[in-house]
Specification:
The complex is a heterodimer of chains A (199) and B (187). Chain A is built from 6 helices and no strands. Chain A is mainly α and 199 residues long. The chains are: A mainly alpha (199), B mainly alpha (187). Chains A and B meet through helix 1, helix 2, helix 4 and helix 6 of A and helix 1, helix 2, helix 3, helix 5 and helix 6 of B.
């Protein structure tokens, strides 16, 4: 046995003495079952939302007799829903694939996933701008036209205008944060890859 | 109706088989997973998250495992890949406190002195490994787990020559780091 092998064996003994927490395997397996069920529930819920919003759009289109404003709003919503569903299915497929690929292949896959996720968030941000262009004038119109109704029944105002404005403001705050976090994650990942390559 | 019931029971049997397989795999390899998590994550909370990520990644990847490599190689590949994602997701400067040394449990049969000595050596190794660049760290931790160069090449998707080069550099760096650690300990 060479001196170097003796050294490695010594390190291995020390290294392999670490760990051994009791019950770790069972608790992990249990949590995975819970997480798996949660992920499936989330996927089903999102698909249900997508189906419901598409059905609502179709109903609105038929009910309005194809009014241009409704048609534009529905087209925008359907386009967004299409992108949403595509991303959902891609993400589901992506999550199940590549986990056991070689490191270089995994790095490429992760890079692509991060880029896709960033593209999706940027698309959401742009969609929000478009939605705001429609929602803000409608809000102003609703406030002037239905002022007396809102004054008499404030809960209608809160339900119609308040929730919409709160949602819009919330998304305007949340999405840029999300995009910045993703960009930072991408930078950190690239720095790691550089380090790995140099290593 | 009968076909639907048969399909449902087949799906449920598949899910149960997958769960049983995962539990067995985790039971057999919990210690290596724990060590890999510790070589990437410093705090208890981070390690718990990472271990959970490992297990979830295994759960999603297990149905695609066709037995081309050993289960251990497959498991370590999934864990190391997941750890790379974890590192890129982790906020900078997070987890600066190293609490593994206190929580690590070392076992060496019935000899407490040997157990203590090995635990000490293991903790020093862990601290030194974390200081290595990712490419070196991965090769070294796999080497310490007892994998051959061929198996490491399979886990990392690189050539055996590349593994040999990285292993030599990692070992040299580790020697320096452990030497530094020992000197610091004497001061």
């Amino acid at each position: 046995m060479t001196e170097q092998d003796t050294e490695l064996d010594g390190w291995r003994q020390g290294w392999q003495a670490l760990g051994g927490r009791a019950d770790l395997a069972r608790s992990l397996a249990e949590r995975v079952q819970q997480d798996g069920r949660r992920l499936q529930r989330e996927l089903v819920t999102e698909m249900a939302w997508a189906a419901a919003s598409s059905a609502l759009c179709v109903w609105l289109l038929v009910d309005s007799g194809g009014k241009p404003v409704v048609a534009v709003a529905c087209a925008g919503t359907l386009l967004f829903t299409g992108a949403w569903v595509t991303r959902l299915l891609t993400l589901k497929y992506g999550a199940a694939s590549g986990a056991d690929s070689g490191l270089d292949a995994f790095v490429e896959l992760t890079r692509r996933r991060l880029a896709d996720e960033l593209k999706w968030q940027l698309f959401r941000r742009r969609s929000l701008d478009v939605a705001a262009l429609l929602i803000v004038p409608w809000t102003l119109w609703a406030l002037t036209e239905r002022y007396s109704l809102y004054r008499a029944e404030p809960w209608i105002g809160v339900a119609e205008v308040g929730l919409l404005v709160a949602l819009l403001v919330g998304l305007f705050i949340h999405l840029p944060r999300k995009i910045r976090a993703l960009e930072a994650a991408r930078e950190r990942f690239e720095a790691l890859v550089d380090e790995r390559t140099l290593g | 109706m009968t076909t639907d019931t048969a399909r449902q029971s087949a799906v449920s049997a598949q899910a149960e088989a997958l769960a049983a397989r995962l539990e067995r795999l985790l039971a057999e390899h919990a210690r290596p997973l724990e060590r890999i998590a510790a070589s990437y994550a410093r705090t208890v909370a981070e390690r718990e998250d990472l271990l959970q990520d490992f297990a979830l990644a295994l759960w999603t990847a297990l149905p695609t495992f066709r037995g081309d490599a050993s289960e251990r190689t497959f498991l370590l590949k999934v864990a190391h890949n997941r750890a790379v994602t974890f590192l890129s997701r982790r906020a900078p400067n997070q987890g600066s406190v190293d609490d593994y040394a206190e929580s690590a449990e070392a076992s060496s049969g019935k000899n407490p002195a040997l157990a203590y000595e090995r635990k000490e050596r293991g903790s020093q190794l862990l601290a030194a490994t974390r200081a290595l660049p990712l490419g070196h760290r991965q090769v070294l931790t796999l080497l310490l787990e007892g994998l051959s160069h061929r198996e490491i090449a399979d886990v990392l998707g690189v050539t055996e020559n590349n593994v040999a080069v990285r292993a030599n550099r990692a070992r040299a760096a580790l020697r320096v780091l452990l030497g530094d650690d020992q000197r610091k300990g004497k001061v």
